[in-house]
Amino acid sequence: MFQNNREGLALALPAAVFTAALFLLPVGILLSEAFQVDGQWSLQGYFDFAAKPLNQVVFLRTLKLGFLVAFVSAIIGYAAAFCIVNLDGKHRGRVFGLVVLPLMISPVARTYAWIVILGRTGIVNDAIQGLGLSDTPIRLLFTETAVFLGLLQLFLPLMIISLVSAMENLPKDVVPAARVLGANWLQVFTRVILPLTKDGLVLGGTLVFTGSLTAYITPAILGGSKVLMLETLLYQRVNVANDFVSAGIIATILIVMSFGANLLLKRISAARS
Amino acid sequence: MTGTWASRLIIGLTLTFLIGPFFIIIAAGLSAGDFLAFPPDGLSLKWYLKVFEVESFRESFALSMFLAVFGTIAALILGVPAAYAISRYQIPYGETIKTIVAAPIIVPGIIVGLALLRYLVVPLNFTITLALFLAHTALVLPYAVRVVSSSLNNLRSDMEEAAVLLGCSRLGAFFRVVLPNIQSGVLAAFILGFVTSFNQVPVSLFLSGPGVRTLPIDMLSYMEITYDPSVAALSALLALMSVVIVFVAEKFLGFSRYV
To answer: How many domains does chain B have?
Structure first.
């Protein structure tokens, strides 16, 4: 540890100034514009925004999908992470690598696959028609289900990674010990695994939730204008209507929710340590 | 254990859900037909070849490559000294600086793109390319700082202190002692930054002009007008590129511990 703090500051400052000038300042101005009406500070923009039914629907849908994706990915994540942790070293590394791999692949490519699967001539529709369940293709794209599946596939790896690292810290013998003492699997999960991996769950949940709230590509490709989420609504407001006030308001909502989730995460992890 | 068959089944299903779709797009791109379908209508490589002929794809690929390489290098030039300062000095307002540098991860990208368009490109007459370059640099910076910091924290600081005591300048100690030891961390940061920047969409959404578009944005607008398998073929090629990068990085750097 060096004592010359001025030198240290000089090293760190360029990065901080760069980010502040090119990132925080423009974003700050954009957000502050949403609090102004005709040059006066006002919350009127927010009231107008909240009064529109479409905005309410989109806001609630975004929250709902965020929670749903986080919840389902937690369920799958626990099952998968438990199995991965119990693999032997070589296999564990391989499977873990395959879980991480999709994160490195273009989200456009990852989402596009669902068009092939869910489209009018996709696998699911072929199967439905092949089995005689329907004569005409069913609309699967541009539904909430399609957006949900896309988001789940996009963010599930984050949950699994968080839970695997939480479970690796679990003492090896707690689960067998609980079993020997007569706990069933549900009790093992709720009384032993869940309390001991809470941090991983909260971290994974926050990543998945904020990721889903702020995803653009998935609702854009799989939801279109039929299933708008906050980000696609923002894009539409700006591109179709040049409505920068709504854009600023949506931006504020997104940032408040992301920061809120992050603060909550810090709180919980601070309370435990 | 409840028996390995159950655990194999769970892992198998999870991996099918996560990885399976890629095999589907690879196959869909191999179609000989003119419309996207799975299973493909006959087999041919024509869509994979067509991808290279579409001029807008070539241009946007070049732009995305440029942004990913030079944006990440710029982020490292800013980020390595910052990471060094954070891990080796007790700087005033250290926590504030850390928060500022990490902010681009938390702020949704679409907002950043819009803000840059309105308050940099329009009033200051910046070109779209410059704005994209700055945005991608800022976006990659937090990853660069985080990865290099963790690499620095694993390196004992008494080596460079010894070098300084033996008469090496502080700068010389950094280049001769510290840098060679955090090489793989810096390289991992470069790869992570490259991939993040190359795949980035929301920031670039509003930052596009005539002939200036990143590849993912170009793909998005291409798929709005056509329903042919070329986007599937391109997606498959991009996925393959990422797989190769990650595989090589894992082999030589043990990349996954940095992610």
So the answer is: 1
So what's the pLDDT on residue A212?
94
* DSSP code for B209: B
Nearest of B195, B193, B243 to residue B215 by alpha carbon: B195
B205 and A99 within 8 Å at the Cβ level: the answer is no
User: Residue ranges per domain, chain A?
Assistant: 52-272
- In angstroms, rounded to a whole number, what is the distance separating the alpha carbons of residues A145 and B241? 30
- Report CA B181 to chain centroid distance, whole Å: 24
Nearest by CB: B115 against A26, A109, A220: A26
Q: Which residues of chain A have pLDDT under 70?
A: 1-3, 269, 271-273
For the stretch A88-104, pLDDT in tens is 878 888 898 899 889 88
Please give the interface size between A and B, counted as residue pairs whose CB atoms are below 8 Å apart.
Answer: 261
CB B103 within 8 A of CB B145: no
Domain encompassing residue B99: 55-257
Question: Does A83 touch chain B if contact means CB atoms closer than 8 Å?
Answer: yes
pLDDT for the residue B1: 46
- Global confidence as pTM: 0.90
Q: Could you report the predicted ipTM of this complex, rounded to two decimals?
A: 0.87
Residues in A closer than 8 angstroms to B92, CB to CB, are 5, 9
Determine the CATH number of domain A52-272. 1.10.3720.10
Phi and psi angles of residue A2, each rounded to the nearest 5 degrees, phi first? -90, 150
Q: Where residue B64 sits, what CATH number does that domain have?
A: 1.10.3720.10
Which residue in A83, A126, A141, A259 has the most chain B C-beta atoms within 10 A of its own C-beta, making it the best mutation to test that interface?
A83
**pLDDT (mean) for B6-17:** 92
Taking the CA of residue A51 and the nearest CA in chain B, the distance in Å comes to 23
Cis before residue B92, ω within 30 degrees of 0? no
Is B16 contained in some domain?
Answer: no
CB atoms under 10 Å from CB of A86, counted, come to 15
- Residue B5 located in a structural domain: no
Q: Is B226 on the interface with A (CB under 8 A)?
A: no
Place of tokens 């794209």: A141
Which two three-digit tokens encode residue A165? Answer: 């690292």
Q: Where are the alpha helices (DSSP H) in A144-243?
A: 144-168, 174-180, 185-187, 194-196, 198-213, 217-218, 230-241
